[in-house]
Specification:
homodimer, 453 residues, alpha/beta, seven-stranded mixed beta sheet, four-stranded parallel beta sheet, 15 strands
């Protein structure tokens, strides 16, 4: 494990986020109103989101958007994060590939989610908002927003997917320690929740349902906004601090990545690590490959369709142009709770449609096998979500071995797995299940979507 | 939370550990043989520990001992660690004191314990050892040694205090992920364990008992050594990387600490943060105060006696000159499992006897209240152990407020609490208990000790 770390100084924390929409020759399709099917504007989102993130959502012109100083100030708690040349992993794989990972697990909540939680809470506070609502799957986003909301003095209600609420009590407790109110979703506190509980009393929840509940509460509470941890364009924007730092660090290492990999749920960490490198592809200055590593059990990019769909289960959100499995798709209870989402954000979906990226769907057991190799080779126990990126990197390194090549591979370690050890226990016991979705189930869900593309 | 971080580069990782024994005008008393009551030499420890750490244990002459390059190489995974000016905490307390903390929680196992686990595993490997044994309380040391043993290709058996084995399954699982074998202590696998189980079938274990089991297994297994995570002189030596880095970082901040604080179990992180600063006191160049923050329920420095005592429950170890509550003392089941140890290491005990440091015993609820203030002010959820240091820092800041002074306070954040959230839940529910030990119980235990001082 002679792994080498590349360390930046505080002044190297990016001063602006990278907005890939400005550089895309073909822009993402617009969000549509569910009622009129007409394109929405930033103003249409003001009731739901803070004004500034609503504007960012629609900004197709500015390639860089300044990071406010109070946001950079809070980033300093954990940024810049290290880039590591994973020589231990290379050795374990016997590969000539050079493997690097960006380590976002060093944040105080253990994942990359603070990168967007901080600006979202900041803008809300600036605009006089007093209350926020959000959803969380495994609890990574909820923990991050709890920390940020507490810092800016905002109240926060978090709808946590029920299966995670019961399986991951530590993450609930982390949110409560930061002062947030945590509710298991589906709950009786919203119409959307009551409807589901009435029809499916034992339903264990999904991100789609939790989003419906959080949106409904925000819309019915005075001076309250909703904050989302992935999918939306502004979230992808905020996450680009990951790739912008990594770009400088790869320069320090004297290399440029041939392959850039992120795990894929709604797109937040994937966008963060890839977009800053993708801009050099768009400009014709580089020819890297970009790989979205998604769970076999929730394969929106590999097996979904490009269509307008809701971001949530109840249909409260705008219609988003996305690769989707259908907003009623119920993902299996895999341990990578942060990847259990039916669709991909608008930007990633457009880039995928345009052939700018590849997707790979990976069985659960393969991701834990990869996590084990990584933990023993690099000393860091990865989150189940991040393990998808590791598994993809290992696939690529092994393929390179077979082909006799030596690519430079960069992946994002989006979080550590110290609060997910129950999943590791199941893996050790041989009790983890792989879930391959029957095509009929996907087809049935997709058949219910409006045909707008 | 405009907290400021001071970041070092990889080349700033110390090249040598600081050996305070070389500078102490009055040396610690020697270890004694239990059989002959005669002073021991390094060679006497060779059957138990690796030769190099045995030599370090008795080194009274070299103020600096070189860190082997493979050890520094592994330190690079997480070192140098940040020093943070805790402006958020200062603001929350309304204090003019300047408060700094050294953040050892950024290591991949979440605590400072790797600082000694890595060299101990390295030396064992260098000397041809194939198997290690150790004990662990809350699991921090066991996790660290598991990671290091795995890296150097050593087998490892960890005796984990039973109450923690049952309460903290995540830490057990972390050790297993790194490939270690974990046994709940007391166990049937050793004479020491069987004796206790026979007499006290429901005994929930203690560090003293787990040490007995680990020592017994090491002594009865070919090519096997024992590794200890605290107390011993060589462990304190290895931990000085904390304070040596902090010294450079305080220089970057343009300040020098008036008060240096560490939580106190056996002395490892306390020694690490304080000894490099204490050497300037010894040299007459500074006049800092040093505070050991121990649990009210295990107050060896504040209420124990200076006497020769065993390091373990069964009496397998050498006799150590220590402030002790008696090796049969059974600490209450507080959540700061790493501080549940009956004695203080020989160096710290000597320094305490010589008036070089102060001790403070703190009730459990006060430590969690401090942890809450810190988590909300600085964004990091601290380990229950580290929360003792935070509580002591808050006491000092509040006293400074009353006295109208503005001291520079430095404490060590030895670990994060993300795997201890069950303890936070109990605190939120108002269910945490303070344990004040009746003086009679301490007196009874101490009365059983040989009178060698």
């Amino acid at each position: 494990m002679e792994s080498k770390k590349f360390i930046l100084q505080e002044q190297d924390i990016p001063k602006a986020w990278y907005n890939i929409m400005a550089d895309m020759p073909v822009k993402p399709r617009p969000l549509l109103s569910p009622a009129t099917k007409k394109p929405l504007s930033a103003e249409d989102l003001f009731p739901l989101f803070s004004k500034e993130v609503s504007r960012q959502e629609f900004n197709m012109t500015d390639p860089f958007i300044e990071i406010p100083e109070p946001v950079r100030d809070l980033y300093r708690i954990y940024r810049p994060t290290p880039l590591v040349r994973a020589r231990g992993l290379e050795k374990a794989l016997g590969t000539r590939a050079h493997i690097y990972f960006k380590n976002e697990s060093v944040s105080p909540v253990g994942s990359h989610k603070l990168n967007s939680a901080i600006p979202q809470a900041f803008y809300a506070k600036e605009e006089g908002v007093t209350n926020l609502t959000t959803e969380t799957g495994a609890g990574q986003w909820g923990a991050a927003l709890s920390m940020a909301a507490n810092h800016f003095g905002l109240n926060l209600a978090v709808y946590m997917v029920k299966v995670s609420y019961n399986q991951k009590p530590y993450r609930r407790s982390i949110m409560e320690t930061y002062g947030a109110e945590v509710v298991a979703s589906p709950s009786m506190s919203t119409k959307a929740g009551r409807a589901i509980i009435t029809n499916h009393p034992n339903y264990q929840g999904s991100l789609g349902t939790a989003i419906s509940e959080a949106v409904e509460l925000a819309m019915s509470t005075p001076n309250c906004k909703y904050a989302l941890g992935s999918v939306m364009n502004h979230v992808c924007l905020h996450q680009t601090v990951i790739g912008l730092e990594a770009e400088k660090q790869m320069e320090m290492a004297g290399e440029y990545p041939d392959i850039v990999i992120g795990c894929f749920g709604g797109g937040s960490n994937f966008s963060g690590i890839t977009f800053p490198f993708m801009r050099h592809n768009i400009a014709g200055k580089a020819n890297s490959r970009f790989i979205a590593a998604e769970p076999q059990s929730c394969p929106k990019l590999t097996r979904g369709v490009m269509q307008y769909d809701f971001g949530d289960e109840a249909g409260y959100t705008p219609l988003i142009p996305m690769y989707t499995l259908g907003h009623n798709f119920t993902p299996a209870n895999i341990h990578a709770g942060g990847l259990r989402y039916h669709g991909a954000g608008a930007i990633v979906s457009a880039l995928s449609e345009q052939g700018m990226l590849e997707a790979m769907d990976i069985p659960q057991n393969e991701t834990f096998a990869a996590a084990h190799i990584f933990a023993r080779a690099e000393g860091i126990i990865p989150a189940p979500e991040s393990s998808h990126a590791i598994a993809a990197a290992i696939r690529e390194a092994r393929r390179a071995n077979e082909e006799g090549t030596a690519p430079v591979i960069l992946f994002n370690l989006s979080g550590h797995g110290l609060i997910d050890m129950a999943a590791y226990d199941q893996y050790h016991a041989g009790d983890l299940v792989d879930y391959a979705i029957p095509q009929q189930e996907i087809d049935d869900n997709i058949a219910q979507l409006p045909k707008l593309i």
